[in-house]
Every structure is written in C-alpha cells, then in structure tokens.
Amino acid sequence: MAAESSEKWILNVTAQTPTNIAVIKYWGKRDEDLILPINDSISVTLDPNHLCTTTSVAVSPAFTQDRMWLNGKEVSLSGGRYQNCLRELRSRASDFEDEKKGIKITKKNWEKLHVHVVSYNNFPTAAGLASSAAGLACLVFSLAKLMNVKEDHSKLSAIARQGSGSACRSLYGGFVKWIMGKEENGSDSIAVQLADEKHWDDLVIIIAVVSSRQKETSSTSGMRDSVETSPLIKHRAKEVVPKRIIEMEEVIRKRDFPAFARLTCADSNQFHAVCLDTLPPIFYMNDTSHRIISCVEKWNRHEGSPQVAYTFDAGPNAVLISHNRKAATLLLQRLLFYFPPKSDTDLNSYVIGDKTILKDAGIQEMKDVEALAPPPETKENPTQRHPGDVSYFICTRPGRGPVVLTDESQSLINPETGLPK
Ligand code: ADE
Predict the structure, then answer these.
(1) Is the distance from the beta carbon of residue 125 to the nearest atom of ligand 1 less than 6 Å?
(2) I need a labelling partner for 116 at 20 to 30 A (CA). Which of 61, 150, 344, 380 fits?
(3) What residues does the Diphosphomevalonate decarboxylase-like N-terminal domain cover (predicted)?
C-alpha cells in the first residue's frame, strides 16, 4: 500500500463502482449547488462486470496539487462539484497510521495533503451511459476509504450526490431509492438500498447504444429549463411520482414483472413528455429510440403481458429490462432483426457483455443475423430493417455495489511515482 521512506511514502486505494439506470426518473433540482431533487427516484444498479468505473486515489506529502486523469487524459479537479466532494471528504477524514511504513496522517493533515486520482470507465464516456454516476460514486467511495472516513454508505451517498445527482444511487447494488429529503442543507437527501442484486436475479438488461449525430442538451441545463418552463413537471413531481414510488417499491418487493414494466415504461415516457413540455422543447430520443419503443410495445401486446420494459435517460440509448433469459433471448433476436450491424461489423464487438444471451439466441455469425425471420407480431405489418442505426448492444443484469480492489496489480497508479501507470 505504501513506499518505504517516511518522506516519500505514497498511500493508495483502488475501487470499482457500478453505474445505474433509473426506473423512476430524477428530473429537476430544487437546489442547483447542493444537487437536491424535486422528487424521489428509484434505480437498478448494473453489473459492474459490464459497466463500471475503476478509480485509484493516492496521497503523498510529495504531491504539490490535487490532480486527476480520466480515461488517460489529465483533467481539472477545480470544478465546483469535484471541490464540494473533496471538501466534504477532507472534513470527515480520520487519523491514519501505519507504523511499519512510517506513515502517520492526522485528521488535520488531511486538509493540507494533496491527492492524485486516476480513473477509467470501461465503456465510452461519450456513449451517454451515465458515466458521471459511476465516476463520481467511485471518486467519493475510493477517497473515503483512503481518508479513513468512518461514515456509512448513505452518508457517502449524500457526498456523491453533490458531485453528480444520480451518483448517490451507485453507492449500492440491486434496487436503490434516492430520497429527495426536506432539509435545506441536503443532509436527508440520501440513497438507500431497497433490495440487493440477488433479490430479483432473473432480470436481464440489454442496452442499445444508439448512433447519434445530434449534440444533446446536457442534463444540467435541460433540468433547469424544465423546472423553469414546464407546467407538466410540477404535476409530475407533486402528484405522479410520489404514488409511483410507493407502487414501485411494492412491485420490486413482490418481483411483479408486468407491473414493473408498466411503471418503468410509463415513467420514462412521462420524463420525455416533460422534456417536450419544456421551452425550448428537448428531444433526447431519436427515430431509432422510437422504433425500439414500437418493437417492444408490439411484442408485449402480442404476448398479452409485458416481456420487456424500456427506459430512456437524457439521450437516445434504450435500456431494455427483460423478465428472464428466455425473454431476453427473444428480445435480442428481435433487436438484431430490426437493427443488424453494418455488413463489415464484427458481431463479437456488436453484442458485448454477457455473450451467452447471443449464444442462446442461436446467433454465432453474421449469416445467422441475416437469416433472422421477421417477428410473428409484424406479420400483418411488415417492418423494415435498419442496419447501422444501433452502434452496439450491451447484455447485462442487475449488479452489486462498490468494492475496494485489494490486488496491487489492479491499481491504476504507479506506487513509486504517484502518476498513472
Ligand atoms: N465523469 C465521467 N466519468 C468520470 C470518472 N470516471 N471519474 C470522475 N468523473 C467522471
């Protein structure tokens, strides 16, 4: 954990944190600086084996400033949100001593010592897959371990929240509720775990990363515009979401998939309706997103009960939650029928994550994709195929919360220099 000399020592910690997808959406802040939301939200944590952030943090008397490297490039830590997290963590740091290695850091010292942060997302930051949720959760979790912060995950979630709202939900695995809270200082705006990842482990999640040429409105400015101009958002926050939160908690407890799917789709649709109700209107979904909704709606109707739920965040990517492996297999066949890769794409990089779903779907090569028959629900109304409209698919599932990686080989920081490996 540290180098030998008392003056040159470097202490470091590495952690891995998942991303999450909201099934009852967070949209709208009541305090922009503290990141306090206007409604509760509920999310599913995604398996970090497929989507995660890994962050190493280090402290040393030799460091002259706080520095961060994200996905191989040095970036500034001077932004208000990073600074809020660093300040909150430093104020909660505890004494640390390792006599053998000659390291002694008192609570007071933490205020003066600088940190280095090296972080990687195992998915493209630009893909719009809530990288800031996993990223800020990982930053807070790893620094809390390094600084010997003796707070539980809920307290840490309130710190992560100040870095990126939805990051607070990435402090837990499984199903997580972000309680909006009432206090002006945000102390009760925290995440709590509703159920762990084993509670409902037959769910399978397929993410369609949708190709997009359009520059999207950032969530921060989109939310601000919605709060200022949308009449619908007030109705949503006061009347709709409080009831949905109660229902969703019950549905998750009972693992009632049809009710889960109906609520998840309805809440995604209302969030996008709020975006359309904003001045100027915000369009996060595109034609491909709409085609995916239509494919799911047609199939669910044809089956008579929901097989899959869709949800879309502030971008065109679809997150599709299927009831079980059988439904996920049938879903993937449909998705590959409508959205095959371009002919020169390698199938292996077109469907990533849990490849066993692809195998179960009987698809090994491009010729298997080409041979897919139109789904039975489209018999009366033949539908076109749209090669190239989806960049790739990620097959995943509900996953666990943050962990410390103890194997030194997993550290992203060189223990001698304190710089990225
Ligand atoms: N924003 C996006 N990804 C991040 C990461 N891994 N660490 C900190 N901030 C981020």
Answers:
(1) yes
(2) 150
(3) 18-191
Mean pLDDT in residue range 389-403: 97
How far apart are alpha carbons 27 and 62 in whole angstroms? 42
Sheet containing 191-195: which strands, arranged edge to edge? 20-24, 41-45, 175-178, 191-195
Does this chain's domain 11-196+402-410 share its CATH topology with 204-396?
A: no
Answer whether 347 contacts ligand 1 (Cβ < 6 A): no
> Is it true that domain 204-396 has CATH number 3.30.70.890?
yes
In testing the pocket of ligand 1, which one of 73, 83, 136 has its CB within 8 Å of the most ligand atoms? Answer: 136
CATH topology of domain 11-196+402-410: Ribosomal Protein S5; domain 2 (3.30.230)
Q: What is the pLDDT of residues 290-319, one digit of tens each?
A: 999 999 999 999 999 999 999 999 999 999
Q: Where are the alpha helices (DSSP H) in 210-315?
A: 219-229, 231-235, 241-254, 257-276, 287-303
Q: For ligand 1, is residue 53 a contact (CB within 6 Å)? A: yes
pLDDT at residue 3 greater than cutoff 60: no
Is residue 1's pLDDT more than 80? no
Lowest mean pLDDT among 122-126, 261-265, 294-298: 122-126
* Domain map (residue ranges) of the chain: 11-196+402-410, 204-396
User: Using only C-alpha atoms, what is the Rg of the chain?
Assistant: 22
Is the beta carbon of 293 within 6 A of some atom in ligand 1?
A: no
Give the separation between CA 351 and CA 342, rounded to whole angstroms: 13
Instruction: Give pLDDT tens digits for 176-224.
Output: 999 999 999 999 999 999 999 999 999 999 999 997 776 678 999 999 9
pLDDT > 70: percent of the chain: 97
Q: For a substitution probing ligand 1, which of 131, 138, 141 has the most ligand atoms within 8 Å of its CB?
A: 131
Mutating to test ligand 1, I would choose from 66, 70, 74, 85 the residue with most ligand atoms within 8 A of its C-beta, which is 70
Nearest to 86 by CA among 61, 67, 64: 67
pLDDT in tens, 75-87: 999 999 999 999 9
Among protein residues, the one whose CA lies closest to atom 9 of ligand 1: 135
Whether 133 lines ligand 1, by a CB cut-off of 6 Å, is no
Amino acid in the structure at residue 70: L
pTM score of the predicted model: 0.95
